[in-house]
């Protein structure tokens, strides 16, 4: 999908488009960007 998330780091904002978000074995989300 083309969902976008915003990450704030070092006082700056980054917008990342997630191309693929698989559910890993631990049940956590990992993002391939």
From TrEMBL:
Task: Tell me the superkingdom of the source.
Answer: Eukaryota
> What's this protein's name?
Uncharacterized protein
Q: Which organism is it from?
A: Rotaria sordida
Biological classification of the source:
Eukaryota, Metazoa, Spiralia, Gnathifera, Rotifera
């Amino acid at each position: 999908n083309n969902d976008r998330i915003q990450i704030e780091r070092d006082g700056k904002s980054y917008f990342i488009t997630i191309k693929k978000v698989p559910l890993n074995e631990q049940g956590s989300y990992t993002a391939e960007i």
